[in-house]
Write a structure and sequence with these properties.
Elements: E1 4-5, H1 16-23, H2 36-48, E2 53-57, H3 60-71, E3 77-81, H4 85-88, H5 93-98, E4 101-105, H6 114-119, E5 131-137, H7 150-163, E6 166-171, H8 174-181, H9 188-191, E7 194-198, E8 209-213, H10 215-227, H11 236-248, H12 253-269, E9 273-276, E10 283-288, H13 294-303, E11 306-307, E12 309-310, E13 315-319, H14 326-338
Parallel strand pairs: 1-11, 3-4, 3-5, 5-6, 6-7
Antiparallel strand pairs: 2-8, 7-8, 9-10, 10-13, 12-13
The protein binds pyridoxal-5'-phosphate.
Amino acid sequence: MNITDLRSDTVTKPTPGMLQAMFAAQVGDDVYEEDPTINALEQKAAAMFGMEAGLFCPSGTMTNQIAIKAHTEPMTEVICDVTAHIYQYEGGGIMFNSGASVALVHGERGKMTPAQVEAHIRPDNIHYPPTRLVALENTCNKGGGAFYTLEEIAAISEVCKRQGIALHLDGARVFNALVASGEDAVAYGNYFDSISICLSKGLGAPVGSLLLGKKEFVKKSRRIRKVLGGGIRQGGYLAAAGIYALENNIERLAEDHRKAKEIESMLIQADYVEYVLPVQTNIVIFKLNDRYKDVDFVAALAENSIRASSFGPQMVRFVTHLDVSDDMLQHVLQVLHKLNKTHVAI
Ligand SMILES: *Cc1c(COP(=O)(O)O)cnc(C)c1O
């Protein structure tokens, strides 16, 4: 049986249409800024978010880390939620790459309020690292795919502007937020000083992220990318996959959200689930009661050709994506039902 891989939306493979676009790409040397396809992708993504310029990078970790380095100096501080990818899942990169410290906010499902952000900004006092950057994540991975609305972003942006602090977005799954909210990305450019977007999550490209911002910021970021060894010479083959993804794979994220909702409905009824974080996009995080240990539950799924991530004590994560077909969804629902202590065939 085919494996249904719900560990992450990073596992997708290029579709035939995407591969065709990649084969047909015009390329050049991007370190000389001469790759027409990378240049086109950078301009296209920047325009979508109301930004002046963009920078193509191999990963979202790199775009985030470049942004943090560009906005800070050693001995300054970044504010983010305690669950943030930049803090939890980038290998200590803030400290290593930027020599900056981090002020952690205990938000709600990965989301900080303007008051929480403001309360963590340091006063001008020799004892404290000066606050230089606030970083939001949209959608919030560890928050189970919860998202900020434009109104919430605007309120945090207002605090940052008033205090003279830069605002960065880790938008690895920002398209999921935009599709779910129905909002237009172009307004983001008014609120953020930099935006990182991933092409290799729900959008289905094999590789690639973009860092978006003002021209001067992107120029500085290009230098940092060079230092990190992130310039890809004839990377246009990869950028072509990114352009294809932006043109074909955004609206369909609603499909992934629908599938995540169906999984949520099944889990809410299951006798082995304590709670499910209410599903808003393509991530389903739930807590098991004592009927299963998380590793045993994940193993039981594996025996039924389903892969999932163990996500902390008794926590499990499913992520839906474009390689999860309707048939696979039906199979997942049946297995989740079967794992109940008492079940009737559906
Ligand atoms: C996946 C992800 C990233 C970047 O990951 P890469 O694997 O380095 O591309 C950044 N932020 C969040 C929230 C993510 O989920």
